[in-house]
Amino acid sequence: MPGTVITFYSYKGGVGRSFALANIAVLLARWGNRVLCVDWDLEAPGLHDYFRPMLQADPTSGVADLVEDFVAGECRPAAHITRLAHTDTLDLITAGRPGADYRGWVQSVDWASLYDDGFGEYLEKCREKWTADYDYVLLDSRTGISDIASICSAHLPDRLVVLFTANMQSIRGAVEIAERANAARRGLPFDRPRLTILPVLSRFDTREEYDRSEEWRRICVRETESLFGNWVHHTVSADVMLRHLTLPYVSYWSFGEQLAVQSESSPGADQIGFALETVAAVIAHEFDRTDLLEENRDAYVAAVRETNRSFAYDIRVSTQRSTMDFADELIAELESLGTRVGKSLSGDRSLLGKAEDNAQHLCLIVDGKVSRWQSAEVELFLHRTLGQDRRVIPVLTENTEPNALTGYVGNLRYLRSKGSRGLAGVARDLMDQLNGDIALVDTGDVDLVDLLRQAAHALLRPASWHLVGEIARDLVNAVGAGDSQRAQALGEELAVMTRSRLGENGGRVPVPSGTKEALEWAESVLGARAKGTSGGFTGYLPE
């Protein structure tokens, strides 16, 4: 799937456009995306200054050299990329080599003549190469209305991020460029859909003059409301959306070129990194699922932050002190199946201070009832989980009645530890749930697979073996019909028949070949799992 080209544009300077692009690029790369930043602000370049600590040497070429390649009849889209240090997923194309020659070159370029000579087709080839190699290509555009701004706002992008401040020139200029860009795209000889526009209210100070700031927020919403129509969920208002897309003014970050998101790794709601994360998450969600953003901003961000994330543990087992030994045995069984398992103990406050969870799934060992601490742990897990494939699975001890479970946990599919299945069976069922495997029938507290294996090693009279074979065949038929109740009853009958006769030799013989075949087939059928499919299983012995 090709990457997405996103232009960052502002009608006027001084809105923090390059600052926003650089920080959002770092976030997208941190979340596992391949990102290329391109400085198309040729008249006032400076994007590379934000990445200076990551530059191993001064860049020697950039966008200007791409243009010169076209004039020379060459096409080398990747030749002018600067690799940044300390990352494998974030690269940069600067505006070009600085110096007096560069300034003269910028002033002499005739963009209209270049397009007449086929520069548009050349840019398409560059675009194809970049979107094949990167998930996101972020373009830092020239301000105002110009030929360069048109390249970045109409020709190249799939999405347009428009930054503006709370004054009418900036607001109306942002709306105007969005309208002009879509009008210009209709005349392009390339296949381009209507632009999706992300309005970002930047450098907005609400700490003083609160009433005045709210008045201007209403003005901003009114003037930009049309830009939200084709991508924001119908239940989400423009006012709510723009509040999420507001970058606050923080004087500290107005000095120099700094990457705030590198200093604010776990930002609070009053820090600029928090707002930058929100904007980056909207981009990473492809401008989608804004209803989830309104419902739970932290989970919305976490959903993209953890999309490409590798967890330290596949599952965390949460236990009370009364079930510590039980938890340790279950963890040992899970680890024997190749599962990476972590453990949390009720009252462990270190969980509360972590910005992210280190386990993909949560197993809740419930002894009698869900403790208040476990309820809080589940709530925290769900808060970080919205929109992700992460699950909570309760495992009930023998002292726990399912009807005693309340709230969210009471509606979950649970596992039982009692019966012949033991913790090994619980561990297998737990992994089946995590892998999306569904048992063809619910065998209750009896491990029918283990029971069939034991039966195959019993010593019985020949007439009894005939009955065992019939039970095995009936079990297969019950599984094929999805009849869990019948399968459980047959399991109980098989257990009674074989348990009292194990090890007794008088007149008893090992399992005959025909009955052994029936037992093995029943074992394979009961051990089968379906991947969430509703298709039936015939379950009959092959003839």
UniProtKB/TrEMBL annotation:
<dbReference type="GO" id="GO:0016779">
    <property type="term" value="F:nucleotidyltransferase activity"/>
</dbReference>
<keyword id="KW-0418">Kinase</keyword>
<dbReference type="InterPro" id="IPR002586">
    <property type="entry name" value="CobQ/CobB/MinD/ParA_Nub-bd_dom"/>
</dbReference>
<dbReference type="InterPro" id="IPR027417">
    <property type="entry name" value="P-loop_NTPase"/>
</dbReference>
<dbReference type="InterPro" id="IPR050625">
    <property type="entry name" value="ParA/MinD_ATPase"/>
</dbReference>
<protein>
    <submittedName>
        <fullName>Tyrosine-protein kinase family protein</fullName>
    </submittedName>
</protein>
<dbReference type="Pfam" id="PF01656">
    <property type="entry name" value="CbiA"/>
</dbReference>
<keyword id="KW-0067">ATP-binding</keyword>
<dbReference type="GO" id="GO:0016301">
    <property type="term" value="F:kinase activity"/>
</dbReference>
<keyword id="KW-0548">Nucleotidyltransferase</keyword>
<feature type="domain" description="CobQ/CobB/MinD/ParA nucleotide binding">
    <location>
        <begin position="6"/>
        <end position="210"/>
    </location>
</feature>
<keyword id="KW-0808">Transferase</keyword>
<keyword id="KW-0547">Nucleotide-binding</keyword>
